[in-house]
Prior knowledge:
The structure is a single chain. By secondary structure, the chain is mostly helical. It has a domain at about 55-195: Hyaluronidase domain-like (Orthogonal Bundle), CATH 1.10.3450. The chain has 8 helices and no strands. It is globular.
Amino acid sequence: MPNRPSPPRYAPDIPLPRYAYVPGHDLPHPVNDADGHSHGHAPQPSPLPSDAIARLPTEPASRRRALATLLAADRRWHHALDLFNEGFSWESHEGWEHFWHALGRTTPEARFVQGLIHLAAAAVKIREGKPAGVAKHTQRARELLGRAGAASEGGAEGSQRFDAAARSLGLDPASLGAVVAELETYRAECWHMSRFPVVKVLTAGLRLAG
C-alpha cells in the first residue's frame, strides 16, 4: 500500500476513546457494558438542526455547497472524521449514523453519508477478519457514493457523481477515492488477530476539502 501522510486531526480537543471496539473481540461494548468507553455519557444533541436542513436550497449545486458549509462548522462531523482516520471504525460508524438520520435517511445527501457508514463497516470487517464483509460493504459504499473513485467501472459520469458526493460532505474527492480504492483492493491480513486497543487498518484517510 502507498505511503500517505496522515490527515490532520480536525477536532483535536475532543478526546479519542481509549480503545476501538471490534465485535467478537474481548472488548466491552462501548455503550451497553458498564466498562464501555462511552457508557453513561449524556446523549448528544441531534446534529444539523432541522430548520437549517429545511433552509437548504433546492438547486443541486447550491444545495451541495450549503450542506458542505453546514458540515464544515459542525464539530461532531469533524470528530467522526477523526475517529475514522485514527482507526476507530465502529465509533465513526455510530457518529455518522446521527447525520444520516438528521438528513432524512433516504435523501441524496443522507445516502452519501450512508456510503461513509459502509466504508466504516468495511474497516470493522477487516478487524473482524471477514474479507467477504469488507468486499460487501465497500461495494455498497461505491453504489451510494456514485460508483466511482476506484479501479473499476464508473466513467466520466460516475466520476462526476462521486465528486458531487464528496463535495456535498465537504470532503476532498481524492481522499475519499483513495479510501474506497484501498478497501476495494484489500487482501486478507491478520489484523483480526491483533488485540491492540487501536489498529489503523487503512493508510488512506478522509480529508476536508481545501
